[in-house]
């Protein structure tokens, strides 16, 4: 069933969600504090950009896509426009459901979500978790809305910091790996455009194999690694330089920061 959604925040993630929601047939009204950004969204997507109470008053779902430090003030600024009949879906990293519930009318259902930037191309990974007042129907609705930008899984709220560390921040890790491999190709004598094409298509194909083959990352890695061959030599270097330890430390740092953002 099509919903009317008030999207609070029209940044990159908000825009990705806006596109997916419109493709799924939903009506979206936007709240965006930047006049230039709001004009861009109106021009590109044909949406109305309104003040917060006006947008929320037209909607059944409030989709919160602002920066974490803006969340509480924004919710309080909506006044009595939000009621317990609304569903609040938040993609603000680290801000707990309890924090948002405290700024909303009693009984307002809240669903926390952690999407990632591949939502911009319809290949996002989103985890959703219920707050105290959210039931199965609220989770179903949130999942159906977010399915327009990729895959959706359900988790507990306690797992969201770990989700943030893996899929939320994960695209940046992969982009950093691509950057490093492209630089390696240039060091080995390849033109940068060629090195980029080789690495990017290798990443795309490898991801498709992981998703579609039914085999594990370990199995696929082993299939590429001939004893005493070039891949084995490269993997030995990565192991000696602490690749796995570095990723473990990185994920722990991201999860820790997510908890800090939640206060």
Overview of this protein structure:
By secondary structure, the protein is α/β, with parallel strands linked by helices. The chain folds into two domains: 153 residues, 3-Layer(aba) Sandwich (Rossmann fold), CATH 3.40.50; 92 residues, ProC C-terminal domain-like fold. The longest helix has 21 residues. 53% of the residues lie in helices and 13% in strands. It contains twelve helices and seven strands. The mean pLDDT is 92. It has a seven-stranded mixed sheet with strand order 2-1-3-4-5-6-7. Helix 7 packs across helix 12 and helix 8 packs across helix 9. The two termini are 36 Å apart. Helix 1 links the parallel strand 1 and strand 2. The radius of gyration is 21 Å and the shape is elongated.
What are the defining features of this structure?
263 residues; alpha/beta; Rossmann fold; ProC C-terminal domain-like fold; seven-stranded mixed sheet; 12 helices; 7 strands; 53% helix; elongated
What's the end-to-end separation, in Å?
A: 36 Å
Strand content: 5-15%
Radius of gyration: 21 Å
Q: What would you give as the CATH superfamily of the largest domain? A: NAD(P)-binding Rossmann-like Domain
Query: Residue share in helices?
Result: 40-55%
For the record, the count of structural domains works out to 2
Largest sheet: 7 strands, mixed
Q: Which shape, going by the Cα principal axes?
A: elongated
